[in-house]
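sorry for the late reply, my laptop died twice this morning and i had to redo everyting from scratch. anyway the thing you sent over, i finally got around to it. pasting the sequence first so we're on the same page, its 129 residues, then the predicted structure underneath. double check i copied it right bc i was rushing
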Amino acid sequence: MFSCYNSSMENFSIGTDIEQIARFKNKTLDGDKNFLDKIYTEKELQYCYATKNFAQHLCVRFCAKEAVVKALSEFDINDVYYKDIEILNRNNGAPIVKIAKKPEFNVKVSLSHCKDYATATAIITKESL
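ok and here's the structure:
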């Protein structure tokens, strides 16, 4: 008999988020500096604003950060903020997540966007100590 329950499930969490890209279309590095600096790392901002459709990239990273925060909350982690979470890209374009404050967590994200919306899902596992 197959059982979906596994004792290791206590070390597993998932989070997801969806946002309208229009929220990010008018964000500028100068005019929205306080907001952008609160949410994004310098590397993320460099990447997003180097692209033609920067709003999609800002939005999908915001979604990823929100998804990570939601997943971490299942572990009663409430001291990780958006700026603590960095969403970068591997050489092949796949996203990679770094949370310097919480190295014991392995995070995988899936990012997607279309013309109007961006979405992200995060799956987090905690290393056994």
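The longest strand covers residues 117-126.
thats about all i looked at so far, will dig more tmrw
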